[in-house]
Amino acid sequence: MERINLQLPTSYNRCTPAQLRAIAAIMADRGLHTSRLHPYDHFEVKVAVFFRLTGIEVVEPVNPRVNVEDQYYTCRQTPWTLEEENSRWFRMLRWYRSFKAWFRRSVLGHDDTFSLYLWQINYWLTPHKNLINGKDIPGMLDWLDADSRDHLLRFPFPTVYRRRRSSWFSIGKKVEFHGPSPFMDGFIWRRYRFAQDYMQVYVDCHNALLQMQQQGNKVSADDMLKAVKNYDLAKAMFLAVLYNSRITYVDEETGCKKTDFHYQSNQHSDNSPYFRNFPESDFQLILLWWQGMMHFLQKTYPKVFKKTSVKSPKKPVNPLELYTRTTATMEKYLHITASDVDREPYTTILQQLEDITRRNEEIEKMNAKMKSRRK
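Request: output the structure for the sequence above.
Response:
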């Protein structure tokens, strides 16, 4: 029997870029093929991720006519690793190793298949108790669960090369773009707010597209095409805020001209053509990183990112209204202009809002106590 490498990653941040891409591709594929007859099954995703990360190829599926404890997959190890799939010479490598494996099987008569039982996979991927000390042992891929505390905080694609996209095809040479630093270090308040707003636009366009897809033939082809274009544009503008290109700008501290990867306020529109038709599997990883960052900020600034009940009578705040209100609050308490607020590091503004919110809550509690004493 072939030896299976069970040294799988224990979190998103311990995954290599190739492993992250593989996980995102599986999740996107399962989400795409979800229907009423075949609902989304997260354990099925875990099994697919397990096969992909361990390099196991399924030769024959399970036989559903036998008992569950006797059901197994007929498998073999792929003749290349997941990391090698992203190498420059992978096509040649795949042909050579595939031919070598075929020669061993067909000519030399070497049987490289093995049986992998369902109970083995279930034991590895589901939580269970240690029979000796009774401690709970988590499943190998439990960090993929939605309720897991593990989040991707390392930006998956620090550098990308993109061509400008016209109406029908890509034009010009590839341009280098640099993504955010760890924990979005260097983000000014304006850039952070733009990223938040365009993420909300993306979510709205994505939900509208899903509703049209569920309606089926009731939606015209023109409306569907328009929704797809809006979805792709929202995604491109969000990415254009995250990625900086090399530009020449005037440094505010020294007053000298510099040429470097730098943020400019209009790059969400100027650079968005470079990010049209961005690979969906790669974008899913960026969404996973954004979700992890939001969890991190919510933990760091709990008063600013205070959760509200879904049944709350309060209406959701418009992003522009929230931006205007925040800027006015900072002008009032810090005695600075709106342009100064926009240029401040986003963590400074969030910390100021956290302190202001905490003080306001303390004042409200004190007023409530005084009113109760007067009664």
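Residues 61 and 271 are 46 Å apart (CA to CA).
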